Amino acid sequence: MLHFDDIVFGPIFSRRLGSSLGVNILPSKGKLCNFDCVYCECGWNEDGVSDNVFPRLSDVAEALEAKMKAVLDEGKTVDSITFSGNGEPTMNPDFAEIIDVTLELRDRYFPLAKVSVLSNATLAGRPKIMEALMRVDNPIMKIDASSDELVRKINKPTGYYSLASVVDSLRKFEGRFVLQTMFLRSADFDTLAPEPLAAWMDIVRELRPREIMVYTIDRETPDKTLEKYTVEQMRELVQPLVDEGFNIQIRG
Q1: Domain 8-251: which topology?
Q2: pTM
Protein backbone atom coordinates (compact mmCIF):
# COMPACT_ATOMS: atom_id res chain seq x y z
CA MET A 1 0.00 0.00 0.00
CA LEU A 2 1.01 3.61 -0.57
CA HIS A 3 2.55 5.71 2.20
CA PHE A 4 4.25 9.09 2.14
CA ASP A 5 7.48 9.42 4.12
CA ASP A 6 8.16 13.04 3.19
CA ILE A 7 6.19 16.14 4.17
CA VAL A 8 6.32 17.40 0.57
CA PHE A 9 6.59 15.14 -2.46
CA GLY A 10 6.33 15.34 -6.23
CA PRO A 11 5.26 17.01 -8.32
CA ILE A 12 3.30 14.02 -9.57
CA PHE A 13 0.58 13.85 -12.19
CA SER A 14 -2.93 13.75 -10.73
CA ARG A 15 -5.82 12.65 -12.90
CA ARG A 16 -7.91 15.34 -11.23
CA LEU A 17 -5.48 18.19 -10.50
CA GLY A 18 -2.68 18.03 -13.08
CA SER A 19 0.92 18.56 -11.93
CA SER A 20 0.48 18.27 -8.19
CA LEU A 21 2.91 19.01 -5.37
CA GLY A 22 1.76 16.76 -2.54
CA VAL A 23 1.80 17.81 1.11
CA ASN A 24 1.51 15.25 3.91
CA ILE A 25 0.92 16.87 7.31
CA LEU A 26 0.23 13.56 9.01
CA PRO A 27 2.66 11.20 10.77
CA SER A 28 5.18 9.78 8.28
CA LYS A 29 5.42 6.29 9.80
CA GLY A 30 1.98 5.05 8.80
CA LYS A 31 -1.64 6.07 8.43
CA LEU A 32 -3.73 8.29 10.72
CA CYS A 33 -7.34 8.88 9.78
CA ASN A 34 -10.79 9.00 11.34
CA PHE A 35 -12.05 7.00 8.35
CA ASP A 36 -10.93 3.49 7.43
CA CYS A 37 -12.20 3.38 3.84
CA VAL A 38 -12.44 0.02 2.12
CA TYR A 39 -10.69 1.47 -0.94
CA CYS A 40 -7.94 3.55 0.74
CA GLU A 41 -4.63 3.42 -1.12
CA CYS A 42 -2.85 3.69 2.26
CA GLY A 43 -4.41 0.43 3.50
CA TRP A 44 -6.25 -0.28 6.74
CA ASN A 45 -5.69 1.90 9.80
CA GLU A 46 -4.66 -1.10 11.88
CA ASP A 47 -1.85 -1.92 9.46
CA GLY A 48 -0.28 1.52 9.71
CA VAL A 49 2.74 1.71 12.01
CA SER A 50 2.29 5.30 13.12
CA ASP A 51 4.32 7.30 15.59
CA ASN A 52 1.35 9.71 15.93
CA VAL A 53 3.70 12.69 15.67
CA PHE A 54 2.33 15.43 13.42
CA PRO A 55 4.74 17.62 11.46
CA ARG A 56 4.90 21.04 13.10
CA LEU A 57 4.13 24.31 11.35
CA SER A 58 7.83 25.16 11.10
CA ASP A 59 8.63 21.71 9.66
CA VAL A 60 5.99 22.07 6.95
CA ALA A 61 7.02 25.63 6.06
CA GLU A 62 10.69 24.66 5.74
CA ALA A 63 9.98 21.53 3.66
CA LEU A 64 7.50 23.30 1.40
CA GLU A 65 9.75 26.26 0.66
CA ALA A 66 12.74 24.00 -0.04
CA LYS A 67 10.73 21.86 -2.46
CA MET A 68 9.23 24.88 -4.22
CA LYS A 69 12.69 26.38 -4.75
CA ALA A 70 13.99 23.07 -6.13
CA VAL A 71 11.04 22.61 -8.49
CA LEU A 72 11.36 26.18 -9.71
CA ASP A 73 15.09 25.73 -10.34
CA GLU A 74 14.32 22.61 -12.38
CA GLY A 75 11.96 24.60 -14.58
CA LYS A 76 8.95 22.47 -13.71
CA THR A 77 5.40 23.73 -13.30
CA VAL A 78 2.98 23.18 -10.44
CA ASP A 79 -0.77 23.25 -11.09
CA SER A 80 -1.82 22.33 -7.56
CA ILE A 81 -0.34 22.22 -4.07
CA THR A 82 -2.37 19.35 -2.70
CA PHE A 83 -2.91 18.32 0.92
CA SER A 84 -3.62 14.59 1.11
CA GLY A 85 -1.00 12.15 2.42
CA ASN A 86 -1.34 9.45 5.06
CA GLY A 87 -4.89 10.16 6.20
CA GLU A 88 -7.12 13.14 6.99
CA PRO A 89 -5.12 16.42 6.78
CA THR A 90 -7.50 18.50 8.89
CA MET A 91 -6.56 16.35 11.89
CA ASN A 92 -3.23 18.18 12.18
CA PRO A 93 -3.60 20.64 15.11
CA ASP A 94 -1.75 23.32 13.09
CA PHE A 95 -3.90 22.85 9.96
CA ALA A 96 -5.21 26.43 9.77
CA GLU A 97 -1.79 28.00 10.30
CA ILE A 98 -0.23 25.61 7.77
CA ILE A 99 -2.77 26.76 5.18
CA ASP A 100 -1.82 30.40 5.82
CA VAL A 101 1.89 29.66 5.29
CA THR A 102 1.15 27.60 2.18
CA LEU A 103 -0.82 30.44 0.61
CA GLU A 104 2.03 32.85 1.29
CA LEU A 105 4.61 30.51 -0.27
CA ARG A 106 2.35 29.75 -3.23
CA ASP A 107 2.01 33.47 -3.96
CA ARG A 108 5.79 33.85 -3.82
CA TYR A 109 6.89 30.86 -5.91
CA PHE A 110 3.96 29.55 -8.00
CA PRO A 111 1.29 32.28 -8.03
CA LEU A 112 -0.77 30.47 -10.69
CA ALA A 113 -0.99 27.22 -8.71
CA LYS A 114 -4.12 26.27 -6.83
CA VAL A 115 -4.05 25.14 -3.20
CA SER A 116 -6.19 22.04 -2.82
CA VAL A 117 -7.23 20.06 0.25
CA LEU A 118 -8.58 16.53 -0.02
CA SER A 119 -10.74 16.01 3.06
CA ASN A 120 -13.45 13.65 4.28
CA ALA A 121 -15.27 16.75 5.61
CA THR A 122 -15.78 15.29 9.09
CA LEU A 123 -14.06 18.27 10.77
CA ALA A 124 -15.28 20.93 8.34
CA GLY A 125 -17.84 22.15 10.85
CA ARG A 126 -15.17 23.35 13.29
CA PRO A 127 -14.95 27.14 12.80
CA LYS A 128 -11.16 27.40 12.51
CA ILE A 129 -10.95 24.51 10.07
CA MET A 130 -13.90 25.78 8.05
CA GLU A 131 -12.33 29.23 7.76
CA ALA A 132 -9.06 27.68 6.56
CA LEU A 133 -10.83 25.49 4.01
CA MET A 134 -12.68 28.50 2.68
CA ARG A 135 -9.34 30.27 2.08
CA VAL A 136 -7.97 27.59 -0.27
CA ASP A 137 -8.76 27.43 -3.97
CA ASN A 138 -10.04 23.87 -3.97
CA PRO A 139 -11.60 22.55 -0.77
CA ILE A 140 -12.36 19.05 -2.08
CA MET A 141 -14.85 17.49 0.31
CA LYS A 142 -15.74 13.83 0.27
CA ILE A 143 -19.21 12.32 0.46
CA ASP A 144 -19.09 8.75 -0.82
CA ALA A 145 -22.43 7.53 0.49
CA SER A 146 -25.92 8.89 0.93
CA SER A 147 -26.79 7.32 4.29
CA ASP A 148 -25.08 6.70 7.62
CA GLU A 149 -25.49 2.94 7.07
CA LEU A 150 -23.69 3.07 3.74
CA VAL A 151 -20.97 5.33 5.17
CA ARG A 152 -20.30 2.71 7.86
CA LYS A 153 -19.84 0.06 5.17
CA ILE A 154 -17.63 2.09 2.84
CA ASN A 155 -15.80 4.69 4.95
CA LYS A 156 -15.91 2.91 8.32
CA PRO A 157 -15.67 6.02 10.59
CA THR A 158 -13.56 5.38 13.67
CA GLY A 159 -15.69 7.65 15.87
CA TYR A 160 -19.03 9.40 15.80
CA TYR A 161 -20.28 10.22 12.32
CA SER A 162 -23.45 11.87 11.09
CA LEU A 163 -24.00 12.47 7.39
CA ALA A 164 -26.62 15.08 8.28
CA SER A 165 -24.00 17.00 10.30
CA VAL A 166 -21.51 16.88 7.43
CA VAL A 167 -24.14 18.14 5.00
CA ASP A 168 -25.04 20.90 7.43
CA SER A 169 -21.37 21.96 7.64
CA LEU A 170 -20.95 21.96 3.86
CA ARG A 171 -24.13 23.98 3.43
CA LYS A 172 -22.25 26.87 5.06
CA PHE A 173 -19.80 26.90 2.14
CA GLU A 174 -22.66 28.14 -0.05
CA GLY A 175 -21.46 26.03 -2.96
CA ARG A 176 -17.84 27.26 -2.83
CA PHE A 177 -16.32 23.80 -2.67
CA VAL A 178 -15.71 20.70 -4.79
CA LEU A 179 -17.65 17.57 -3.93
CA GLN A 180 -15.74 14.32 -4.40
CA THR A 181 -17.47 10.94 -4.59
CA MET A 182 -16.09 7.45 -5.16
CA PHE A 183 -18.52 5.11 -6.93
CA LEU A 184 -17.98 1.41 -6.36
CA ARG A 185 -19.74 -1.80 -5.38
CA SER A 186 -19.21 -5.12 -3.64
CA ALA A 187 -21.32 -7.99 -2.39
CA ASP A 188 -22.35 -5.77 0.58
CA PHE A 189 -23.21 -2.49 -1.16
CA ASP A 190 -23.63 -0.62 -4.42
CA THR A 191 -23.34 3.16 -4.25
CA LEU A 192 -25.02 3.53 -7.66
CA ALA A 193 -28.05 1.37 -6.94
CA PRO A 194 -31.26 3.36 -7.58
CA GLU A 195 -32.08 4.28 -3.96
CA PRO A 196 -28.61 5.44 -2.78
CA LEU A 197 -28.00 7.19 -6.10
CA ALA A 198 -31.26 9.14 -5.82
CA ALA A 199 -30.41 10.14 -2.23
CA TRP A 200 -26.89 11.23 -3.28
CA MET A 201 -28.37 13.36 -6.05
CA ASP A 202 -30.64 15.03 -3.51
CA ILE A 203 -27.56 15.92 -1.42
CA VAL A 204 -25.92 17.39 -4.52
CA ARG A 205 -29.00 19.47 -5.26
CA GLU A 206 -29.09 20.73 -1.69
CA LEU A 207 -25.40 21.68 -1.48
CA ARG A 208 -24.94 22.83 -5.10
CA PRO A 209 -21.13 22.53 -5.14
CA ARG A 210 -19.31 24.51 -7.84
CA GLU A 211 -17.81 21.28 -9.15
CA ILE A 212 -18.34 17.56 -8.61
CA MET A 213 -15.65 14.93 -9.05
CA VAL A 214 -16.94 11.39 -9.46
CA TYR A 215 -14.46 8.60 -9.88
CA THR A 216 -13.94 4.92 -9.22
CA ILE A 217 -11.18 2.56 -8.11
CA ASP A 218 -7.83 3.23 -9.75
CA ARG A 219 -5.27 1.70 -7.38
CA GLU A 220 -4.80 -1.31 -5.13
CA THR A 221 -7.41 -1.47 -2.35
CA PRO A 222 -7.28 -3.16 1.07
CA ASP A 223 -10.68 -4.79 0.42
CA LYS A 224 -10.10 -7.15 -2.50
CA THR A 225 -13.82 -7.74 -3.18
CA LEU A 226 -14.51 -4.26 -4.57
CA GLU A 227 -15.68 -3.70 -8.12
CA LYS A 228 -15.17 -0.54 -10.16
CA TYR A 229 -17.53 1.25 -12.50
CA THR A 230 -16.66 2.30 -16.04
CA VAL A 231 -16.62 5.94 -17.06
CA GLU A 232 -19.52 5.22 -19.40
CA GLN A 233 -21.62 3.73 -16.61
CA MET A 234 -20.95 6.65 -14.28
CA ARG A 235 -21.66 9.19 -17.01
CA GLU A 236 -25.01 7.61 -17.80
CA LEU A 237 -26.06 7.48 -14.15
CA VAL A 238 -25.14 11.09 -13.32
CA GLN A 239 -26.51 12.49 -16.58
CA PRO A 240 -29.67 13.88 -14.89
CA LEU A 241 -27.46 16.21 -12.82
CA VAL A 242 -25.48 17.22 -15.90
CA ASP A 243 -28.77 18.05 -17.60
CA GLU A 244 -29.64 20.24 -14.62
CA GLY A 245 -26.46 22.25 -15.15
CA PHE A 246 -24.08 20.76 -12.57
CA ASN A 247 -20.38 20.75 -13.47
CA ILE A 248 -19.38 17.10 -13.14
CA GLN A 249 -15.91 15.68 -13.87
CA ILE A 250 -15.85 11.90 -14.36
CA ARG A 251 -12.66 9.87 -13.95
CA GLY A 252 -12.11 6.16 -14.36
Answers
A1: TIM Barrel (3.20.20)
A2: 0.90
